[in-house]
Amino acid sequence: MSRRSTIRSEKIIVRNGFRLRGNVLILLFGFFLVGLFLHYKGRTEPVVAFWNDVRELLGIRRSRADHDTANPYQAPEPRTDEASEDRTGSSTKPADNEASADGSATAENPVGDGSSGQKRTSGRLFDFEKQVDFILPAGLSNDQLVRHEGYTLRYDENLKNPVWVAYPLLAYEITGDAEREGSSFMPDPAVEGGTALPSDYTRSGYDRGHQAPAGDFKFSQRLMSQSFYMSNISPQAPQFNRGIWKQLEEQVRAWALRDGGLYVVTGPVLRDGLPTIGRVNEVAVPEYFYKVILYCRKGASPDIRMIGFLLKNEPSNERLQSFVVPVDQIEKATGIDFFNKIPDDLERRLESQSPADMVDGWFF
């Protein structure tokens, strides 16, 4: 055999060997993805979130078209006649139907206007969760109801503040690569009487404080941008907004990642006679802010948990646990009835829990 034939044979062996090793790696990676898919019982959202993390690690960014793609989790428009941060510094009672077997909280009801009809869900639901607008609080119905793709709110046009902002928060929604850079605060065109203007906050000494935080919409650049509507904004003391309020937002996201999903209702405590800021509008400055959070799971081990927070609009070095209060207390302070579609006995038990019981049920 000639020397040239020997060299050619050696190259073929080397190439074939390399191809074999490459095929094994691809096969192993394929098995890993199938295992990940089966681990999450066929749900695609966690797999998508994992792929987003891998892309971020490798420096692969989404195209603009990917950012603008409509959310695939869609539901029909609810049958109702109602339309619709300035952080520059840097327990339980089972219901009678099937629900999520994977242990994740779910959000079947739409939280969007008729143009989007958005549904965000991670499984089957309790009966009470299936009711139209289950997440929306009752009371103060004279204020305008405004629906956006990522959240729904009631807006007080006199005080120029949201009364409440409600939305489901699922784990995969927090793990995308949408960025707040480039987003601008803007009036909300859906509010008939007009919202506060960004300039009403200029040199006021107060931040434009998100109620539904931008960080809860990392999965969609469009929805994150909509969180900058002024209907979602209230005046917050700078060190409150950038301190304890931000810590609470991060804690809620951590719970959503841990538990699979939550329902969130948040907002300011409004009343007549509050001090105001504003160049064009008189924007009330709330003294307190609240968050009410609900977790639902039905399956082999049903679990329904609720927790409330009431925080004064001022800097604080206290632990988040010190701001936990019974949801009944928040209802008395605001005149709002939270999650009123939950069966009455269960609702009373959840809303009257002591702070110690709620801390034990959530901070673990």
From TrEMBL:
SMART domains from the UniProt entry: Endonuclease_NS (SM00892), NUC (SM00477)
Amino-acid positions noted as binding Mg(2+) in the UniProt annotation, renumbered to this chain: N241
GO molecular function: endonuclease activity; hydrolase activity; metal ion binding; nucleic acid binding
Cofactors named for this entry: Mg(2+)
Keywords, alphabetical: Endonuclease, Hydrolase, Magnesium, Membrane, Metal-binding, Nuclease, Transmembrane, Transmembrane helix
Keyword Transmembrane helix: yes
Transmembrane segments: 20-40
EC number(s) from the headed UniProt entry: 3.1.30.-
Region (Disordered), start-end ranges: 67-120, 186-205
Domain of life: Bacteria
Feature: compositional bias, Basic and acidic residues: 78-88
Coiled-coil positions: none
Domain ENPP1-3/EXOG-like endonuclease/phosphodiesterase intervals: 148-345
Enzyme class: hydrolase
Domain DNA/RNA non-specific endonuclease/pyrophosphatase/phosphodiesterase, first and last residues per copy: 147-345
UniProt keyword Heme present: no
Catalytic residues (positions): H210 (proton acceptor)
Family according to the record: Belongs to the DNA/RNA non-specific endonuclease family.
PANTHER family: ENDONUCLEASE G, MITOCHONDRIAL (PTHR13966:SF5), ENDONUCLEASE RELATED (PTHR13966)
Protein name: Endonuclease
Source organism of the structure: Fibrella rubiginis
